[in-house]
Every structure is written in C-alpha cells, then in structure tokens.
Amino acid sequence: MIVGALRPGFVPVSVLRELCLAAKPGGYVCMSRNGLESQSGHQYKLSLEAELQLMEEEGLWSHVTTRETDRYMIDMYKYCDAEQKDKYVHGTMYLYRKSLQ
What we know:
This is Williams-Beuren syndrome chromosomal region 27 protein. It comes from Liparis tanakae (Tanaka's snailfish). This protein has helices spanning 15-22, 39-57, 76-79; strands spanning 2-3, 28-34, 61-74, 88-98. It is α+β, with helices and mostly antiparallel strands. The chain has one domain (2-98). It has a four-stranded mixed sheet. The protein starts with a strand and ends with a strand.
C-alpha cells in the first residue's frame, strides 16, 4: 500500500514495479494519490497511468478498481479560510491484484 506519495518530488513512477515485486502472488496492491493540479502533477498522472496499463499488459497484475473521490483529504490552505466551502482535495485510489505466476 502506498498513500499520498504518488506525486512529483515524492516517489518516481518506477516504484510501481517495486510494489508489484513486493506483493505475494495473488496479493493486492492499493495505491492512492491526491488530485492537486499542476503541470508536473498532470504529467505524473499520465506517466503513472501509462505504467499501470503497461504492467497489466505484461501480465504482472490485473486491474481491480479505480475510484475517484471528492473528499480525499482536507486542503489545509483552504481549510484556514472560513469562507471557503470546498475544504477538500480530490484524489484517486487504484487497486490491483498481482498475478499468480
């Protein structure tokens, strides 16, 4: 499981393969990332999802589900502003199951 670190400047996209290697055959890998928007964040998301797809095509794991949420975490910058109604950052959760082979 990796929570919140899938973003530019934290962990490289290559960590996905390490997570897959660390999982037992048939085990689940759960990952989440926040949806803070930036140019580098958008590029990271594209690279991340391309790698997820490539690993699935290689038979390393299978996609179980991907869920978007509008209330992933509190946006501390907006939370301090009492007039701001949207206090949360959206996010995405990914769940994959490692192949039995």
